[in-house]
Amino acid sequence: MATEHPSPALPAAAPSRPYPKARPGYGKRTASGQRAPRSDDFALMPERERYIAGYVDRLPEGAAMDIKSLARHLPLYGQMAVSSALKALGVAGHLRRVRCLAGERDQVRWVSRTYWSRTARDNEWWDTFLATEGSRSTPEATPAPPPPGAPLRSTSTPTTAPEPTAPPAPPAPAPASPTMPMQRTSVTPAVAASPAYLALAQLGCRDTRLALSAADCRTLEPLAADWFARGVDADYLTQALTAGLPAQVGSPVGLVRRRLIDKLPPHVAGSPIPAMAATPKRRLLAECTECGRPGAPEALPDGLCRPCRTTPPEKPAAPPAERDVHALVAQLRHLTRLP
After folding, report:
1. pTM of the model as a whole
2. Which residues contact 195 (CB under 8 A, 6 or more apart)?
């Protein structure tokens, strides 16, 4: 009779180390129109760039793409090597770093992303791609919340019709007190806020150093209305008031009043809308892969700004000047001679 010898269970495979994830909105983004991965991908690149490109290509969407995170999980190379490799991959047409707006309504922030393409692309393709992504990166408008006390409307369609119910009987009026006269309640209709008031109220959302109260917004509203009367929109006004703020603002209302008066744009006759307001707003900026300087995609060919592309050539070392050894020895002997 054969005896069964139960074999031990096979050891479980060691779980792979999870990829570091970036914060929501940041990290890696895969470009469209790529071919399927092959074994000879990045075969023409040097060993270091080929190794790092293979690792980046396997990262999932939203993975951390900053230099420190990549160097922390690459055993062969440090931060300087990773930085040089990413620069070379950008020049080769595999990646572009960008800044874009993410969020909804007034809760909007600039985020940094890295678009990756397994297929090497030229500068014209990247310019077109980033321009398309810039038009898509406009924060989506969400419906405004209902005013306090307004009934909530359900967005889902009911499956069955509700049963008709009789309207409730109006409540009987309370008897008036013989000693106190009846008070009349007056309902004040809600007045819609002007664009100038809304632009001033949202300054605190853009920069907390310019948080204004309701009384401050009502006081500065006529000054801001003069800007809108000259064809300026809310984005232009906000940018002019928040640019170049000091580290600490002691009086936000005083600073905003001073800027509203000093930076009032000129009035152009026959042109109610300035030229810069009529141009489409750019929601995406490219970043230099080397130094991180932002700019338009077409102004950063190969993903590099002008200073990083045009590095000054090293000057050849000048030959050492010939020295008269005998005169030098005679001078030293003269200095060491006793008086």
Report:
1. 0.47
2. 228, 234
- Domain map (residue ranges) of the chain: 27-136, 195-277
Q: Quote the tokens at residue 127.
A: 């310019």
* AA identity, residue 216: D
Strand partners, 294: 287
Q: Cβ-count burial of 56 within 10 angstroms (0-12 exposed, 13-18 middle, 19+ buried)?
A: buried
Side-chain-side CA neighbours of 98 within 13 Å: the count stands at: 30
Sheet holding 284-287, edge to edge: 27-30, 107-116, 95-104, 284-287, 294-295
Indicate if the alpha-carbon torsion angle 49, 52, 55, 56 is positive or negative: negative
- Tell which wins on pLDDT, 82 or 5: 82
Report how far residue 90's alpha carbon sits from residue 312's, in angstroms, rounded to the nearest whole number: 20
CA dist., res. 173 & res. 39, Å (int): 85
Fold of 27-136: Arc Repressor Mutant, subunit A (1.10.10)
H-state helical runs in the chain: 47-58, 67-73, 79-92, 123-136, 195-201, 203-206, 214-229, 234-242, 252-262, 275-278, 306-309, 325-336
Mean pLDDT of the chain: 75
* Both tokens assigned to 213: 């109260």
pLDDT tier at 231 (50, 70, 90 boundaries)?
confident
Contacts of 275 (CB under 8 A, 6+ apart): none
Q: What share of the chain is helix, strand, coil (3-state, %, to 5)?
A: 35, 10, 55
